[in-house]
Amino acid sequence: MGLERKDLTLCERSLRTILLYGGFLCLGMCFSVVGPTLQDLAFKLNTNTSNMATIYTARSGGLIIGCLIGGLLLERFHRVRVLAVSYFCSGVFTGLLPWCASLELLIGVMLLNGINMGMVDTASTVWCLDLWRVKPGPFVHALHFSFSVGTFIAPLIAEPFLIPTQITNTRAANFNETKSRNLKELLMQEYEANYYEEISYGVIGLFMAAIGIVTFAVSLVNSADPKRVPEQHHSNPKLQPWPTRLLVAAIILLVLLHFLIYGGIEIAYGQLIATYAVVLQEEKPSDRSDWPNS
Fold first, then answer.
1. Closest C-alpha to 34, from 48, 47, 52
2. Domain region containing 195
3. Is pTM, for the whole model, over 0.85?
4. pLDDT at residue 168, as a whole number
5. For the chain, how big is the Rg over CA atoms in Å?
6. Alpha-carbon span 31 to 150, nearest angstrom
7. How many Cβ atoms from other residues are within 10 Å of residue 144's Cβ?
8. How many domains does the structure of the chain reveal?
9. Percentage of the chain surpassing pLDDT 70?
């Protein structure tokens, strides 16, 4: 059943849209920062890339759960506040990633982060459609453009804090073959003294959490703006001719297949570009993986 909604001025809608773009930009950064730092996290946890790849499975599963949960929560609770809490939690979990002391804990945090990312994705799109009901297309496109900007920026933020390739390559060459404890201790001391990937994760997580706090404040200023307008009459799909219904079903199926393939390539392979550049191509330390990822 529809609920009444107070109309917003053009300025109010524009400011909220800018806030949405900022949130999606941060979402892109949270999503993309793991790729170029994967080798660093593997070095810190003393594991290999094959084991580290499981964190993407955990995040993808979380995204599925988050999208489903997000849709249910948006129907029952204040939409903007659901989005604000998702922003904040996603920022917190992103900041916690480099502090995980074991692979199992990292997988768990990635799962929780994926759930919140899925909720952010769903709630942001819904709020954008709520704000621009007449012609929402350009604003939704710009929303996803801001996500792309975030995925471009995140590797550049992470680059100053990445471990030089010489250290990670030395680890791969020696820890697995000779099990040199002295070398491991030396490299870990150098790593702990000079390289702090926690900073890049912390900066990105802080931005995301700040967006969540501002969004929650906006929901308190005007609590009526996210609520649904009274439902309007829509044509019954059963009254449409069969060719039209089949065409719509075919288009939906093709779009689903497109995103299934695209999402798999982007998440499963795109995020491993950094590892490919460092491990297989043996890039120089100055040619770290931030540029290929961006």
1. 52
2. 10-228+236-293
3. no
4. 54
5. 22
6. 8
7. 15
8. 1
9. 71
